[in-house]
From TrEMBL:
PANTHER family: THIOREDOXIN-LIKE PROTEIN 4B, THIOREDOXIN-LIKE PROTEN 4A, 4B
Cited SMART domains: DIM1
Keywords: mRNA processing, mRNA splicing, Nucleus
Organism ancestry: Eukaryota, Viridiplantae, Streptophyta, Embryophyta, Tracheophyta
Signal sequence extent: none
Record carries keyword Chloroplast: no
Family to which the UniProt record says this protein belongs: Belongs to the DIM1 family.
UniProt key word Nucleus: yes
Localization, UniProt: Nucleus
Name of the protein: Thioredoxin-like protein
Provenance organism: Hevea brasiliensis (Para rubber tree)
Amino acid sequence: MSYVLTTLTKKKEIDSIIRDTIDKVLVLRFGRASDPGCLHLDDLLSKSAREVSKFANIALVDIDSEDVQVYIKYFDISLIPSTIFFFNAHHMKMDSGTADHTKWIGAFHTKQDFIDVVEAIFRGAMKGKMIVNCPLPQERIPKYQLLYKDL
């Protein structure tokens, strides 16, 4: 069973979903509907939505919307899809052995991988943690070479 996920295109919509998601993990997928990697991830997210609904909400953010560029810059979204997690309006970070703990870059290999990550974030957040360890084995964590350029 798949769920239709909400697509956010306005800063105000993102602000309010971050503020109003209480005692659940908020999963925000930054990307574009035309990207094959995003489509693959969106399929996994929509198929997982019911199973995580007791402890997580999922929404999509359209990175081509002019109004959300402030978030694109703030979270340094340079590769898509990028997934960012919040709990009670706090940005949740995950140590997955990569250089960037602020977001998940790329798609998840399986629906269960996504569910395991969200459960780990939820359990950590309920204990007051702001950063959690990734529960997935290293071979299932996407690796990207992060290039830092002088702007």
